Amino acid sequence: METILETNGLTIQFGGHKAVDDISFSLPEKHFKSVIGPNGAGKTTFFNLISGQLSPSKGKIFLKGEDVTKMSPTLRTRKGIGRSFQITNVFPNLTVLENVRLAVQSQMGIRYQMFRHFHSYKKVTEEAQEKLMLVLLEDKAYALAGNLAHGEKRKLEIAMLLALHTEILLLDEPTAGMSVEEVPAILEVIKNIKAQGDRTIMLIEHKMDMIMELSDSIMVLFNGQLLADGAPKEIVKNETVQSAYLGGLYDEFTA
Amino acid sequence: MRRYFQVSTMAMALVGFMLVVLPSIYDSRSFLILMTQIFIFAIFAMSYDILLGFTGIVSFGHAMFFGIGAYSTGVILDRFDHTLPYFFLAILVGSLISTFISFIVGLLTLRLKSHYYAMLTLAFSGLFLVAAEKWRTLTKGNDGFTFRVPDVMIDRTTFYFICLALMLFVYFFLKRITQSPFGKVMLAIRENEQRTESLGFTILHYKVLASILAGVTASLAGSFYVMSLRFVNTSVFSIDTTLDALLMTIIGGVGTLAGPILGAGLIEFAHHWLTELAKEHPIFERWLIFFGILYIVAVMFFPAGIVGTIQKWGRKKQTPSKKQSIEKHKAAG
Amino acid sequence: MDLFINLTINGLATGMLVFLLAAGLTLIFGLMDVLNFAHGGLFAWGAYSGVWVYTMTNSFLIAIAGAIGTGLVLGFITEKIIIQPVYGNHVQQILITLGFMLVLSELLKVVWGPNQISAKTPDYLAGSWEIGNVILIKYRLFIIIVGIIMFLCIQFILKRTKVGLIVRAGVMNKDMVQALGINIKRVFMLVFMVGSAMAALGGVLLAPYSGVIHAEMGMEFAILAFVVVVIGGMGSFPGSLFASVLVGLSGSFMAYYLPDLSLAVNMLLMAVVLIFKPSGLFVVKG
Amino acid sequence: MSSLLSVQQIETYIGQYHILHGVSFEAKKGEITVLLGRNGAGKTTTLRSVMGLNPASSGSIMFHNQDIAALPTHKISGLGIGYVPEDQGIFGDLTVEENMKVAMKNNDHETLERMEWILNLFPDLKKFWKKAGGYLSGGQKQMLSIARAYINQNDLLLIDEPSKGLAPVIVEKVMESLLEMKEKTTIVLVEQNFLMASRIGDCFFIIDDGKTVHSGDMKALKEDEQLKRKYLGIA
Amino acid sequence: SDSASGDGEKKGDGSKAPIKIGVLASLSGALESYGKQTKQGFELGLDYATDGKMEVDGRKIKVVYEDTETKPEVAVQKATKLLEEDKVDFLVGSSSSGDTLAVLPLAEEYQKVMVVEPAVADSITGSEFNKYIFRTARNSSQDAVAGAAAIAKKGVKIATLAPDYSFGRDGVAAFKKAAEKLGADVVLEEYADPAATDFTSNLQKIIDKKPDYLFVIWAGANSPWNQIADMKLQEKGIKISTGAPDIAALSTMEPLVGMEGFTVYYHDLPNNKVNDWLVAEHKKRFNGQVPDLFTPGGMSAAISIVEALKKTKGDTDSDKLIKTMEGMSFETPKGKMTFRKEDHQALQSMYAIKLEKKEGVPYPVPVLERELTPEETAPPIQN
Ligand SMILES: Nc1ncnc2c1ncn2[C@@H]1O[C@H](COP(=O)(O)OP(=O)(O)OP(=O)(O)O)[C@@H](O)[C@H]1O
Ligand SMILES: Nc1ncnc2c1ncn2[C@@H]1O[C@H](COP(=O)(O)OP(=O)(O)OP(=O)(O)O)[C@@H](O)[C@H]1O
Ligand SMILES: [Mg+2]
Ligand SMILES: [Mg+2]
């Protein structure tokens, strides 16, 4: 399989502290990779570097062989890197539908059209509604996003990401705070996307059951460094991972 | 939602129609002048709202563009000839300078938090004020100068119709823009810049475009403002001019285009009415106190501005109540 | 050399005066994030009430106390009626405080009439010393000293207590601060009152400086105060002090060496600072 | 055992929305009470109502046998109730140290001792003591938020989804710390992580559509597959 | 019976239509006190000129006052209202040059005589002049000429200090011309920010130049007087000269006691009947207060209008009025004024004064040194 994303010695330093330290990895196309590691290991920062929210102090990022290190987040999104945020990040005073519609609009490349009414873009609205249905949020379409309960906002995040239709999806703890009842539904959504087989997905999660079920491979970050990268079964057997990350809570996986 | 916009368009068309027939019913010319000034300030306030209400950019120097339009018009009509072609030239020159300046200021500061844009525009407009003061061969300093206007514009009634048409045009034009996909992105930027960026929109482009749009519209308002006075002086660059636009926009409703129009009307009428009262009743001699109280009361009773607050009431009625939506949810599940 | 000293001392004094005017705004705008356009009204009220008390009692100290008292009372009223409903909303703050500004400055005229009023300098602060060609104006030295004392007091309070932290935390997340057991309303109220009292103090000290007070004096200086707060770095007292002194000195030196630019000096200064250091000269660290 | 906190039939509006219509629960002294329910059920709103952040318009909230429903938030907190909000409520521009300082009600020996205990529990906080809260990682923010609630001696702690975003090993530590504290401090927990909830919870209340729909002993719930399926959608 | 030319002033029933006058003044805002002086002066003037009858040749006089708030757009709005709705025959005003300039084209458009009072900008009777404009106020150049006349002599070295805007720049230019004509030498022109609180740089330069006089043109509240005293200019042998302002501002000039300058008006300077009447009547009406700087101006404007009307026998035809008023002389509290034919500027007396402390007066008082005759202070014709 071809490599879609690759980093080379990626490093970022905040003051004296290296949050991401010399990470080189490559991600094959249509692969599902999870990223785990203790809090503050640098997972989110790693995503921020890939998606362009932060620019590295050192190292390079390649998307399909092209050096994208210096590109703006906007351009990277257009080139196919989409992401969701760990800290809920939506447009609070716009309706839920409007939130998703903006993503669809961007995906369809409708950017500087000033003189046509947005209602004449029926497709955009339809597409947005479809995405809301997918994440079980259709009956909140006209609520203001800022008034959603926490779990609902997480779902909205995912809908917006899906609407972007990017080749690469970076999911940062998509189900954190989602209710036990709904996690399976979202899991289903992610599984479906995976099953369609046209996306490459990276997932940050602390829910090991979910990770084990979905991942083709897992990479482990520790103190900003890449500790291990391999098949799920092997990773959970790694002693450092067990003692410093998993603790005793997930004995069942290691057994 | 959709229905609301249609309602507002109809309402505006109705108001427009009433304003068209107004002069034939009530032809007091000083009243027409008051109305004309309302139209012009409404344009200016709408231009401000493009920044504040639709893109979330606060500017304390919007008078800069107003003044650019004003002086372009004054100087060109005074120096060359007071004919229509020169007036169009003046508008063009004003727009070009405004485009240029807003482009530069935008590029310099729109990367930053809007807060700094506000202060930097304040600084720039201050510099323009000083320039208008100091370039005395062109501007005659702060006393300013009078000039003649093209013949068709001399008649106050004609000028009334021109300004009314212009205001309606600007309203519908800006409305179309704010409801275009472009306008939706502006709103998104107002709500959450960083998120807009990660959706694949280059926010700087939008902000600079919004700033140019606002600048050119303000410059247009400035041109017509001095046309109505046939006189220009440095007060067009003053902070008070910016504050006027700001007050009209906020009192009418930030983020709505009808708001600034209503705001302009409200403030001008309140002003007119209070000063009239001041002549008759001695307690109103200090009418500015009542004017100040008007602002205070407006904030207390119409926190989102008049149009904004009314819109909110409308929305309350339209959205299904929470209970209904839950029942729906259950029925679906 | 004498010229240099003269320009420096007077620039410094102007700077300190600006600092005294801006200090209250550093609290209210810089720290509490309230766009208070009525702040200038508080200068004017401080000045008028101070001058009035001075003519009644002939004691400058009582005048200062009177101004501070006026500031506290007005601060209380302003916070309670005008500011409380609009915390966190800049747009509403602009409208309501501009409205209140009109009310404040018109009320001045109701109480003291529309004419400008002359303000005397107390005898022991009037006049100047001349050493060689260096002229030391007593009142200006006094302003410099008061400015320094004020700065030290504020710094001491902010460093020794949690007030500064609480206010900043309250601006970011009011609910959370309350959930931590702090009566944030009361804290905001107190800080606002102190800020207003500082404004009033600035006003009464300004009066003998320029020798005359008038109802419109507020707005003029309020804008300068905003400029200082922004270029100094929001909410930073060392920043405000530095920026004020910068404004004072550059005004004084520019007027001498580049008189043609002196009208534009404050705006130029602000433009340059904002373009090169958009967060202001001093950033409140955190 | 007597109940320290007793919430009876509260109704809460946010703006014009009627969010809670009849939530009741009790927290007994020395126990960990868990509130369960799907997204949007009203759990967070319930805690906020107890804290006075979204005051209940009717119903009673008794704490130490005193009705606190009408008290302002800071007074409620002053009675000895700590709160970990769902969104962590970190003061982003303040450093970790300053965040803790704002939270500290006292500066006595006991508090300092607790501080030491907290920093041992979450060594990351010590590491980033002078760092702005806004720059912390998601999990670190969660730790800081918990730490702020731990620093004072409270009679009652209201904790909204503490495990969210935390690495498993930290979740375990938090669980242990809660068990450790429960002697002195009564705890009300909102938790989606059923594994955690079921391990440390003593009793539970299920909230749905803004109402309490079920309650009981945690042990019973663990075994009752039918109940779990019905209210929590898990088996 | 009826001697008017009869261009529609008569009402159908034969009784004569009133004459209407619209007065524009700043009755609120920063220039409020000037506006009120003008208004009071105007009222008194009408009473005086009509012997309290408020009519000329059988036609009643009606006055409408409007507040311009010192904003050009308001001034235009109010002036239009006066011209359109009230159908005034005369405009009078206003307190600021900006407002007045904005209204000038309206006077021309509506072909109504406008008597400018007390706006000073030279351009009103200069570059922006139209034939309907008459001015009873003195202009900047007259101030300057008077200022020069008070101090300029052969060989005298003078430095100037003025605010850095039109008012200051125009004033200094005119002063310089006048002073140099009298043989004096203007050695330094300093301009300060009109909002300045610190004048060190300007004063320092002035000290360095060692002039005989410092001539100050200043308007606005933040005056340089305190600092001039503090920097001991007078002790260094630099005499200060400036125009004495209104009473409220005089009280800020304590440090300048002893200065020689000029003034437009102070109530005990002119010695004539009109002024005696003004002072007495003013005291009577406004509980003991004396008329201030611009009160006589308002009165003069009223007198000039009434006098012109008397001459036309109540005819308000503008062309006739203009012809009448050009070159017309009339008695005012400041003595005889004459509207110069060329630019309709009223030539008038000014007063060279010295500021002195007087027992029982809480401000320094301008004491007459010499009355400057209208011819002496005649400004150049600039239109
Ligand atoms: N902008 C920033 N400035 C300074 N430090 C930062 C910044 N962003 C992240 N850090 C630091 O980098 C480290 C890694 O943070 P990151 O958010 O990547 O962790 P994470 O692995 O996502 O953790 P979590 O599981 O808790 O979300 C943390 O110590 C954090 O404090
Ligand atoms: N400010 C608000 N305005 C309007 N509705 C709101 C507001 N806050 C919450 N709601 C609504 O109230 C309901 C309950 O919200 P709450 O946050 O209490 O749920 P929750 O049980 O905590 O959910 P989650 O598990 O997702 O955190 C939700 O339907 C939400 O949309
Ligand atoms: Mg993270
Ligand atoms: Mg919740």
UniProtKB/TrEMBL annotation, chain A:
Record domain ABC transporter: where: 5-248
Pfam families, A to Z: ABC_tran, BCA_ABC_TP_C
Keywords from the UniProt entry: ATP-binding, Nucleotide-binding, Transport
CDD domains: ABC_Mj1267_LivG_branched
MF (Gene Ontology): ATP binding; ATP hydrolysis activity
One GO cellular component term noted in the UniProt record for this chain: plasma membrane
Annotated protein name in UniProt: ABC transporter ATP-binding protein
Organism: Falsibacillus albus
Higher taxonomy: Bacteria, Bacillati, Bacillota, Bacilli, Bacillales
Automatic annotation (TrEMBL), chain B:
Chief localization: membrane
One matching Pfam family: BPD_transp_2
Membrane topology value: Multi-pass membrane protein
Transmembrane segments: 6-26, 31-51, 57-77, 84-108, 114-132, 153-174, 208-233, 245-267, 287-310
Keyword tags: Cell membrane, Membrane, Transmembrane, Transmembrane helix
Assigned GO CC terms: plasma membrane
UniProt-listed InterPro entries: ABC_transp_permease, LivM-like
Localization, UniProt: Cell membrane
Molecular functions per Gene Ontology: branched-chain amino acid transmembrane transporter activity
Taxonomy, superkingdom: Bacteria
Protein name, per record: Branched-chain amino acid ABC transporter permease
Automatic annotation (TrEMBL), chain C:
GO MF entries: transmembrane transporter activity
Residue stretches spanning the membrane: 12-32, 52-74, 94-112, 139-158, 187-209, 221-249, 256-276
Subcellular location: Cell membrane
GO cellular component: plasma membrane
Chief place where the protein resides: membrane
Superkingdom of origin: Bacteria
Any single biological process term in GO: amino acid transport
Mode of membrane association: Multi-pass membrane protein
InterPro entries: ABC_transp_permease, BCAA_transport_permease
Keyword vocabulary terms for this entry: Amino-acid transport, Cell membrane, Membrane, Transmembrane, Transmembrane helix, Transport
Family, similarity comment: Belongs to the binding-protein-dependent transport system permease family. LivHM subfamily.
Protein name: Branched-chain amino acid ABC transporter permease
Organism: Falsibacillus albus
From TrEMBL, chain D:
A Pfam family it matches: ABC_tran
Family to which this protein belongs: Belongs to the ABC transporter superfamily.
PROSITE patterns: ABC_TRANSPORTER_1, ABC_TRANSPORTER_2
Keyword Transport attributed: yes
InterPro entries found in the cross-reference section: AAA+_ATPase, ABC_transporter-like_ATP-bd, ABC_transporter-like_CS, BCAA_Transport_ATP-bd_LivF, P-loop_NTPase
Transmembrane segments: none
Lineage: Bacteria, Bacillati, Bacillota, Bacilli, Bacillales
UniProtKB keywords: Amino-acid transport, ATP-binding, Nucleotide-binding, Transport
Annotated ranges, domain ABC transporter: 5-234
Protein name, UniProt field: ABC transporter ATP-binding protein
Entries under CDD domains matching the protein: ABC_TM1139_LivF_branched
GO molecular function, one term: branched-chain amino acid transmembrane transporter activity
GO biological process: L-amino acid transport
